[in-house]
Amino acid sequence: MGHASIAQDSLGQSLELSGPGLDGAGAYLRVADSVQEFGHMPKHQFTATAWVRIDQTTDWGGILSAVSDNGDREKGWILGYDKDSFTFGISTTGADDGDGNITYLNGSTILELQKWYMVTATFDGSSARLFVNGKLDAETTTQYGEVLYEPRTPVAIGAYIDSNEFHPMEGRIRNVYLFNEAIDADQIEAEFQRNSMIASVIPESDTPLEWTVEPFLCYATQSSVSIVCEVPTAAEVTVRFRPAMGEVREIVSETKSGIHTIEIDGLDAGQPYYYEVLAHSPSGESVKTEPLSFQTAIERGKAFTFIMIGDTQANPEVVKRVSDIAWSNRPNFVCIAGDLVTTGTNKSHWTHHFFPNMQPLISRVPLFPVLGNHEQNARHYYEYMDLPAPEYYYSFSYGDADYFVLDSEKPMGPGSEQYRWLENKLDQSDARWKFVIHHRPAYSSDENDYGNTWLGPSTLGDLDIRQAVPLYEKYGVDIVFNGHIHAYERSFPIRDGEAVEQNGVVYMTIGGGGGGLENFAPFNPWFSSKKTSVHHLCRVEIVGGTLRMQSIDEYGKLFDTYEIRKEHNP
Ligand SMILES: [Fe+2]
Ligand SMILES: [Fe+2]
After folding, report:
1. What is the pTM of this model?
2. Which residues neighbour 377 within 8 Å (Cβ) at sequence distance 6 or greater?
3. Fewer beta carbons under 10 A from the terminal one: N or C of the chain?
4. Among all ligands shown, which has an atom nearest to the Cα of 486?
């Protein structure tokens, strides 16, 4: 569905048509359902004229039409545009080949987008003419006699429409007239001069409405998802969405400017949905996404794939490569294990580094974020992300897995709010797979973050975080994902401070999403199974009791795999 509204400029009002929407249809004005119903379409001569501002070129765009062009059956007339020129098509008795024959005139004026033009078509019984801004732009004498009409053809403003074709215009229209006579060139020129100030209305393309942050998906459940976007000015933001088969629904953001968060609920589990987001400013500017899609979380018992990335920070080229590889995998969701940006309090790091480079991934795949030290607990994180309270920690379920997200900048040890919450949640979890995600590592072979390993002792990981390890082991957490160290490391399964063959917790450092790479100790700590200092992402698939993990570098090369099999339900 397209969108029609009244736009305001310095010279008054015009009708704004926003073009094709989610369902492929565009808005237009249906003057009459048929030429017959209209009753007095001119036959011998006429003038059709309008002021138009085209915002998007198209083939066969219609401005004023009473046309029918179905195979060889060509009747009526159309004032329109085709790519970068205006057009006038007309079918008359003089050129009739038995079932009508349209001649299309293509104007010589190059149509510039967002510029106002007066376009005029005349037919005087012996010639058809197209005028642009009062000047003759094309002419033919091929058509003469009376205009031929198909009686059932609709009469429309802002579209080329017949029984099997629909080409809506995208732009603005004003001063539309249809006269029963062919106005002569001098009068048309005079009419243009009388209104010529319209042609000099400054195009608003100098400051068009643009997304500050393009719409993205944050957090998804089996029945809901949040869509977040940001616009630079006051605007009404609307989300339209529909299932693969079914009605389009619409939600208008309650916010009036800045960051908009729109929660959609009442959805079905595991289903694809199609959506688009539109923003309209009070001054008549608008911006719209392409038709997008999302998928709700799947139910227990169903297979799925997710992507883990960490430490995207300020390295746009790497981040874009990593997020594009993630997107090419078509995962069910993506989780970023902290340090999404380098300086959380710097808004431009969000608007210029993080969000643009995560597209198109996060407009299609829900993002589950995690707080890192570089977020600085800044309000921007909380404003952009829409997570269950208190947001700095939260949990979610996906298929047979439960995920527990913690803020490793806040206490995680016994007695802390997060520890108590986690213990309670883990105890209640009936999921076959359990994952914990926080930014700082419990175990790490990093060369210098926990002591200079080239010269002396190191704690080989964050001792504050390690206080939570007994919980992970007690409640059978399968994998703990962390970032912070800008490299890749997979531990052996660990239990009671030892590497074990099975029934241990695996610790994954996946901090290679973009930040400058770090390196490892000169020796091999007891827990470390695989270490690689490359930019990367981690892909995890779960089907029943089998988990397969693939770690992929920024160029798509597989460099590590891992598998966990569970014989029985927990
Ligand atoms: Fe980092
Ligand atoms: Fe960090």
Report:
1. 0.71
2. 344, 371, 392, 407, 409
3. C
4. 1
